[in-house]
């Protein structure tokens, strides 16, 4: 996507900037050595500014989740670059990318991704413990209270409804006060009313932190609630 609204000055300060990202993989015949390369992303460029919510929409198989993984530093592009908090991900090794994610990024997934052996409180505490921060329990309880689940702190994921599990996941994503939040179909496993409550909660917490939110969704209403909508079609990104 060539977006004329992206100015050089804002790109320097945006929490997330992707420039000419290309992703190629080997095709189905890779083991026989006859597979041509498949291009999943074709020169994708985008940015997300502080406090901005950006939705990426498009059909299944168009490259949305691949792009999200690259933007979050979970995968590497074949060509192009991603800059997070002013740091080029290509200049970091895996440990460096993991450290940057731990201190700057929150994630919300469709399938919640809570650890079943931990309580709601312990799941929210985990990002803080992994980065050896202070006042872990108090901070986690505060965020659980913000999502209306302090009374369920000792319950394990299987004792919670789907909406409650996703609220715990949102609390976990925001507890470290990230500059960036990535959400992959955050309302996909929820009924309409619950999904709307989760979306409202996520947008409110993003606003309070002035964080950039990038989400992949098939939910048109959720996408329209964002500041900008981008459409992925056959690995190419365009502004709606």
* N-end to C-end Cα span: 11 Å
| Assembly of the depicted chains | single chain
Which class best fits the helix and strand makeup?
A: alpha/beta
Q: Fraction of residues in helices?
A: 25-40%
SSE string, helices as H and strands as E = HEEEHEEHEHHHEHEHEE
Write down the overall mean pLDDT.
Answer: 90
Q: Report the count of strand segments.
A: 10
Q: What coarse outline follows from CA principal-axis ratios?
A: globular
Output the keywords.
240 residues; alpha/beta; 8 helices; 10 strands; 25% strand
Brief description of this entry?
The chain has 240 residues and is an alpha/beta fold. The protein has helices at 8-13, 64-71, 94-104, 120-130, 136-146, 162-174, 192-209, 220-224; strands at 16-26, 37-48, 53-57, 79-84, 87-88, 105-109, 180-184, 212-216, 228-233, 236-239.
Task: Describe the model.
By secondary structure, this protein is of the alpha/beta class. The chain has helices at 8-13, 64-71, 94-104, 120-130, 136-146, 162-174, 192-209, 220-224, and strands at 16-26, 37-48, 53-57, 79-84, 87-88, 105-109, 180-184, 212-216, 228-233, 236-239. The protein has a six-stranded mixed β-sheet with strand order 6-7-8-3-9-10. Strand 4 (79-84) and strand 5 form a beta hairpin. It starts with 7 loop residues before the first helix and ends with a strand.
What secondary-structure arrangement, pairings included, does this model have?
Blueprint: H1 8-13, E1 16-26, E2 37-48, E3 53-57, H2 64-71, E4 79-84, E5 87-88, H3 94-104, E6 105-109, H4 120-130, H5 136-146, H6 162-174, E7 180-184, H7 192-209, E8 212-216, H8 220-224, E9 228-233, E10 236-239
Parallel strand pairs: 3-8, 3-9, 6-7, 7-8
Antiparallel strand pairs: 1-2, 1-4, 4-5, 9-10
